[in-house]
What does this fold into?
Amino acid sequence: MTRLVLLGPPGAGKGTQATRVADRLGVPAISTGDIFRANVAQGTELGKLAQRYMDSGEYVPDEVTNKMVADRLTQPDAATGFLLDGYPRTEAQVHELDDMLAAAGEALTRVVELTADTEEVVARLLNRAKEQGRADDTEDVIRRRLEVYAEQTAPLVTLYTERGLLVQVDGMGSVDEVTQHLLAALDAS
It folds into this structure.
């Protein structure tokens, strides 16, 4: 059974790679960002709450995110494994995920960090904002999101390294190259 977490700064290509790798592995790619955006588009209470945080480049509070992920992991398609994209983002979320999995008698099999150059990431996200019309991708918000990532999520790399779960993959390159490197890293681990 494959239970993966994909880490990396905003714009490193996590969403693209999560979909590609999950398809190859036959597990669902579960993206908290996609779930948040769907709720925003539908005008749900969660969406309204999430929008306030997303517009300022901050993380949606753990209690909201944890409930959403816990619910998603109980869906039938996740019974044989999953790839989490965008969760966990904080050490508290790591412990919450540990508890969710332990309650089901499971544990993570691997954590992959996509690494990326900061200025390349900013350029990618500004381009994505133009292409997709994403209002949350202004340069100020992008730079704040990168700061929040460095403060709150980058420390998870150390935690997962200490657990022997982390594999790092260079997120710079063509989409196909990064996918090949990511799959090779998973095969080798």
User: Anything to note?
Assistant: DSSP finds nine helices and five strands in the chain.
